[in-house]
Amino acid sequence: MNVLGLLPESTDAQALTKLSFLDDELSALMRRGVRFHTVGHSGIGRECNHFVRHTHPRKRKLGTSFDAVWSSLRYRGCDALASNSVVERIELVRIQRSIERIVRAEKIDLIHSHWARPSGTAGALAKRLTGVPLVITLRGADVFEVPEIGYGKYDDAYFRRRLRYAFQMADRIIGISSAVIERAHTLGAIPSKTCVIHKGVDHESFSPGNQGDAKQRLDLSDAPTILFVGNLGPQKGVRDLLEAFQVVRQHVPETRLVICGKGPLEEEIQEFRDIHGLKSHLELRGFVGRSLLPSYFQACDVFVLPSVTEAAGNVLLEAAACERPAVGSRVGGIPEYISDGETGLLCEPRNPGNLAERILCLLRDSSAAAEMGRKARVRVVESFSFDRMVDQLLSVYRDVL
């Protein structure tokens, strides 16, 4: 089966995509016989067993391509190209033609767009010309919005038109949680086309380990440890976590907070640490590679994901696979990944006091926390395995062909 995957491209010749969890997903599908093609602007071509990365032709200067201008005007009746920017319309047509060329030359069986925009729109335009089936996976950032923190642009009529067009052209729309699909329905997705495929985790790579050994490997103290892994942006609730940490320290002063990730709030976190004299209690470890992540989960006592908005959260499954209980916000798809009171605890979003209370529940009762961790791993193995996710994806592929 030849699949054209429209997804964030990597500028790293060694990586398949820009995101490690997508690399894992594609690799698992390739092991099952799927041959993937991708396309991007980076100029880095790549071909190996079951994976081919194509590149778009170089951009031409505006005004040098009569054909591109004519095409952009010819498609002016298409909602997906309904933009006041002629330059943007020309770029969409250029990308569409590049995809169309690959579809025909490589005998592509199916187009799989990851995120509804922009790749969903590009896939819809390509399907319009080639008739090749289109699958779109929604991953949250393409449908959720939190205007007060500048997250999402769906009050913009242009973006909504693009989404509706992509949804209209798709043969199947996958959401990584029921919350994502429910949101997609409000944006125009047809319910009969939608399905939920929860994320999966490699529970062999992410597995329980000795906490003391993990802390020694990572040069962490023996103190109770709270762990956060993710993008350091306002949507992840990092500011709430910092406030909650101060409350936790009033009750368990020796507690440490370890933050792994990069993002726009990194300097703000460093300033918070310095102002409050937390240099020995709050550690910023920056970006952590996949090979080290299991050790971080094994080393912590509690994993936290206090997001303001969240489609699912791969890190919740990774923590659970390592037998660590999690505290997560009651938003989006998080309640589908944490069974409250069984595998972890849910807290109210944007409520540092409630977040601190839930963290303290686990720090104060280590036996209850350990039992939640054990149940979390059992649930992951039974319901969130990588094999289960891949089986469901392949089933969708077969259904639309």
Automatic annotation (TrEMBL):
Residues 93-204 form the Glycosyltransferase subfamily 4-like N-terminal domain. Residues 220-377 form the Glycosyl transferase family domain. This is Glycosyltransferase family 4 protein. Pfam families: Glyco_transf_4, Glycos_transf_1. One of its GO terms (molecular function) is glycosyltransferase activity. CDD domains: GT4_PimA-like. It comes from Roseiconus nitratireducens. Keywords: Transferase.
